[in-house]
Amino acid sequence: MFELKHITLSSSGDKKIAGIFSATENIKGWVLLLHMMPATKESWDDLSKLLNAEEITTLAIDLAGHGKSSGGPEDYLSFSDNEHQDSINDVKKALEFLRSEGAEFEKTAIIGASIGANLALKYTSECQNLKTLVLLSAGLNYHGIKTEPFIEKLKSGSSILFVSSRDDERKNSDNAEETQKLFDLVPADVEKEIIVYEHAGHGTDMLKTDEMPSLPESIVNFLKNHF
After folding, report:
1. Which is more confident, 79 or 100?
2. What sequence ranges are listed for the domain Serine aminopeptidase S33 (predicted)?
3. Structurally, how many domains does the chain consist of?
């Protein structure tokens, strides 16, 4: 059993951040879900239900400029790099909310897609107690959020799952290659796993692929092993 609530959080600059909070009756862990552009928090609905079924409480938010958050649904289209980078404050406020609901950071993970993955990595690298990450289509540099320095700052005992697809190619960008580069930079005392699909697309689109292994099941199992 779980209880679903639509919530609103206050972020920097009086921004309002919309979220879907799904609290399970018995809690084995907590997960914050950060979407890609131009998606919204609803892109995580199916995965959230799977996690809830495993007694993992979830919070999915609309980053500023998206969905029902301040500036949504389309202000992100005109965001400067600094405005995109400021979304780290949305992440901070979401985790503060989870803490207020009883979350233990040692049993809390962030799952991010695309720019959401970069934000997840940045925050985790700077937080003493967060140690579990799932990154879908993380990039080397999304709007000035450069990930290589953050990878090198991951704490001993952390665990990270990278996911990419070989068909995720854009101008001057090959996400499978970028993901492999980040994977290779992970410190030796950090547990790491990688899944590379052939034709699964980008970010949360990969959750829908028929390729094996099943990505939703792989994520659930990864988290269960680290909570």
Report:
1. 100
2. 26-175
3. 1
